[in-house]
Write a structure and sequence with these properties.
Blueprint lengths: L6 E6 L22 H12 L5 E11 L6 H10 L3 E13 L6 H10 L3 E7 L3 H6 L6 H14 L3 E7 L6 H14 L3 E6 L7 H4 L7 H17 L3 E4 L2 E3 L6 H7 L5 E3 L5 E3 L2 E3 L5 E3 L2 H10 L10 H7 L7 H13 L11 H5 L1 H9 L1
Parallel strand pairs: 1-2, 1-9, 2-3, 3-4, 4-5, 5-6
Antiparallel strand pairs: 6-8, 7-8, 10-11, 11-12
């Protein structure tokens, strides 16, 4: 058994419908969604972790975690599945249509101190095309309700949605900035084969326009004091998502629930439950290279000190990093520039070879 993880992800794979771009594992909620909490506890025990904690971070994602309802979250808190360390971060993802004042007040009372609302767009026609099942007004009301209970509330947007003109995207960004949120995630649309759009043969967004949209978001958010601390994530200093930072820093985490991935030591478990034990070098490479996504910069000395097995790569990596800097893909601290974020995968491939 691995050391008890300090970071736990709970997946709630229920949705009331299917967003057109989504290929995640999710289905309709069962008659008693709260009973799912008991299944999570049983899964944790079966995997050798009858109780977890004190956790540094807990992230409830989905699917639609709000479908657990107040009863489900109370049951989760009282289940004995986990304890939280002093100052722990507990995030819950929320769908705008599921946000109610009693729910967010209950979440706050239970210790949830971070909410992430999937807004995606601020235009009703786009939301309808995406089959999001909420309106722009509902999203704005959800943000207000959520942050009245939990001040550290952020939103997600998707860049590159079909039918969104540059002018409409600029309007979305202005509305986002006007909300004055501490955290905004901006994901570039990818047309997944398992999604409704993928099955319908929707063409992926034009790569240049997509890069422009993502870059414009980063500029607008930077102007509002939100730093692009990871390729898709922007936060006011001190409001970064600690749960995700742990992953990008190459830390362990346990995922529970149908569709949840885990990383414990060299054991990698995919969302479909498939497990693989990585070689020590594969493990180190994977944990090291996620740092390339971060604004704190790819600190070669610190990375090689943590992963001695990668030291034979020192000279080659130093040359490659210098090359990326010379091409304007990394800044002087080896943090990705706007152009660098666009070609992260290609840089990673070069470092992997
Ligand atoms: S995007 Fe989220 S809410 Fe929409 S179907 Fe997928 S998991 Fe459910």
């Amino acid at each position: 058994m691995s050391a008890a993880p300090k970071h736990l992800y709970l997946h709630v794979p229920f949705c009331t419908g299917r967003c057109a771009y989504c290929a995640f594992l999710s289905g309709p909620p069962p008659a008693d969604p709260a009973a799912y909490v008991d299944a999570l506890s049983r899964e944790a025990a079966a995997r050798g972790f009858p109780s977890l904690g004190p956790l540094e971070t807990l992230y409830c994602g989905g699917g639609t975690p709000a479908l657990l309802g107040e009863r489900g979250f109370v049951r989760l808190r009282e289940s004995g599945l986990f304890s939280l360390a002093e100052g722990a971060e507990w995030t819950v993802e929320l769908h705008p249509a599921a946000v109610t004042a009693p729910l967010v007040r209950t979440l706050a009372a239970l210790g949830v101190n971070r909410l992430s609302i999937g807004v995606q767009a601020f235009d009703d026609a786009t939301l309808a095309r995406c089959n999001r099942r909420h309106t722009a007004r509902q999203a704005l009301e959800a943000v207000d309700l959520a942050r009245a209970a939990v001040p550290d509330t952020g939103i997600d947007l998707i860049a590159g949605l079909p039918g969104v003109s540059p002018a409409e995207w600029a309007r979305t960004l202005r509305q986002t900035v006007a909300l004055g949120l501490p955290h905004v995630s901006v994901y570039a649309l990818s047309v997944e084969p398992g999604s409704a759009w993928g099955r319908a043969g929707l063409a992926p967004p034009d790569p240049d326009r997509l890069c422009d949209a993502v870059g414009e978001a980063a500029e607008a958010l930077a102007g509002a004091g939100l730093r692009r601390y990871e390729t898709s994530n922007h936060a006011r200093p001190g409001f970064e998502c600690r749960h995700n930072l742990n992953t990008w820093h190459g830390g362990d985490y346990l995922g529970l629930g149908r569709g949840a991935a885990s990383r414990l030591g060299r054991l990698r478990r995919a969302g479909d439950g498939a497990e693989e034990t990585l070689s020590p070098e594969e493990d180190a490479l994977e944990r090291a290279l996620t740092r390339l996504r971060l604004a704190e910069g790819f600190d070669l000395g610190a990375i090689l000190a943590r992963f001695p097995i990668l030291r034979p790569r020192r000279a080659r990596w130093a040359r490659l990093l210098a090359d990326f800097r010379a091409h304007g893909l990394l800044d002087a601290d080896n943090a990705p520039t706007r152009r660098g974020h666009e070609v992260l995968d290609a840089m990673e491939r070069e470092l992997l070879r």
